[in-house]
Design a protein that fits this description.
The chain crosses the membrane at residues 28-47, 94-116, 125-147, 153-170. It is a single chain. With 174 residues, the protein is mostly helical. Helix content is 73%, strand content 3%. The chain has one domain (13-173). The protein is built from eight helices and two strands; from the N terminus they run ββαααααααα. The longest helix is centred in the first third of the chain and has 27 residues, at 16-42. The radius of gyration is 19 Å and the shape is globular.
Length: 174
């Protein structure tokens, strides 16, 4: 395949301007998706209030014991919350488990589209998804909004990989 050739859902294009537009569109969509993730996971659907976030961050940085307490209150043991949720099998727990996977599936699809013809695309998706989830979990800790939960990190990463697998499965059929 030549430098200017790109495959898009089984259709190859030789137009660099179309390829650039496609890449730019995917990056814009990825930016919007990450913004929505931040609104949902970090801000809990509230408006972006930089003053509020700065106060929360400053409080934690000036009193590291608060962050330490929140970290201890969170879940650092892998699979603890997943196991507890599967045992209790409450509607809320199942919503949380499925939601943590489902919310990152579009990320896996978008990364699949961005890394379509790249080597080691699956590894890149795994690393990018894990990194984004870790950033969001750490932000919850630093801004003292929500709890740091290693199981959320695992479930989010699983969602990204599942989204990528779905993308790959659909792309192979075309």
């Amino acid at each position: 395949m030549s430098m200017g050739t790109m495959e898009t859902s089984g259709v190859e294009t030789n137009h660099p301007s179309i390829n650039r537009l496609r890449a730019l569109s995917l990056r814009a969509l990825l930016f919007v998706y990450v913004y929505i993730l931040v609104k949902i996971i970090l801000l809990k659907f509230h408006a972006v209030d930089l003053g509020f976030l700065w106060k929360r961050l400053s409080a934690g940085l000036h009193q590291p014991a608060l962050i330490s307490q929140r970290l201890e209150a969170g879940s650092l043991v892998p699979f603890r919350e997943i196991s507890r949720s599967l045992q209790s099998f409450s509607e809320h727990d199942m919503y949380n488990l499925v939601g943590n996977v489902a919310i990152f599936m579009p990320f896996g699809v978008l990364l699949g589209l961005l890394f379509a013809r790249k080597r080691l695309a699956g590894i890149k998706v795994l690393l990018c998804t894990s990194f984004l989830s870790l950033c969001l979990e750490t932000s919850q800790l630093l801004f003292m909004i929500g709890q740091f939960d290693v199981d959320d990190l695992l479930l989010n990463t699983m969602g990204g990989i599942l989204g990528f697998a779905i993308y790959r499965g659909i792309n192979r059929r075309n």
